Amino acid sequence: MSMIEDILVSAQGGKLVDNLAQSFGLTSEQIRSAITELSPALALGLRNAASNPEALNKIVDGLSHPTHAAAFMDHSVACCEETATLGQGAINQLFGSNSAAGQVAQIAARDSGLRPDILTQLLPVLASVVLGGLSKSLGDKGLGPVLGQIAGSGGLEAILGQLAGGGAPTPRPQAPQAQPGGGFGGLLGALLGALLGGGAKGPAGAPPSPGAPSGLPGGLDPAAIQSAIEMIKKTLAQGAPAPDAARGGSPAGPQHAELQDVLNRVFPRG
């Protein structure tokens, strides 16, 4: 059983399957089948998001959102309108668009025996519960205070704005092109390194902007943030099946290869 499946079957005190079956008018076996078929897609989406700056930014913010944490614990929260909206936002980050999410549902429908439209309705709920479960897991590893501080400071985007010297959240930039040693880790490392080295500098080593902050709100520790981000990226990557060299780097199995093909169109590899 994968990490994502473990999270889902343990959610809501181990009653998620029965709770969803009742809410969706399905049998518990049908919900288990849906989880089995959708979990690889969620895992691959999380793994790909871990290497995509724009998506990872949103996922980290999701991990610190109290509604996702509550959805993992409480069925009434998991099936409420706010969770559906937040879960759909997470799905759009994981799969890039409603169209890609629809393709994922079509692929999963073949083996689950459920209609694609039902799986499309389930996906946001499962995504929210998974984020809540991942948040709990990271909290158990000691990252709870950091996630709480990120949430209390307006999210990761606001913190990056502070680190970049803006003093306030800035409009989300286009995701930077991957560079050797770069990507999100390189961007964050440069910003944090500048701050830890004695003052916030621009990504290219420019002098601090006028009024650039010498620290972060709420007593946030830049080194702790960087450590937390790296642990989050590692955790997200652990959920996906290992690549199979015999299949050109796609996870083992034809279904996984199809899912990866869909996601590669959203997050092309350099």
TrEMBL record:
Classification via Pfam families: DUF937 (PF06078)
Protein name as catalogued = DUF937 domain-containing protein
Segments carrying the region annotation (Disordered) are 163-182, 201-220, 236-270
